[in-house]
Amino acid sequence: MSDPIKAPACHLSWTVTKVSRRLFAVAATLNGADYDFVGNFQSLREAHAAGRLYASNLAHHQLSTHRLISKAA
Asked: Tell me: the pLDDT tens digits for 48-59?
C-alpha cells in the first residue's frame, strides 16, 4: 500500500448577506478567518450555488497545490 497523501485541514464555508431587496453578496473562506468576495447575485438560490462552487473550487485548487509541493519534496 502506498503512502497516503496528507491533506491540509480546511474550514469550507461561505456567507450570504442580503444587500437590498433583490441583491445578495457572497463571500467564501477555507480557514474561517480570511474571506474572498465572490460576487453579488439576484437570488438567494444563485448566491448559495455560487458560494458552494467557489469554496469547492478553492479547496480543490489548494489540495492540488499541496500535492504538487509534497511530490517535489
From this structure: 999 999 988 887
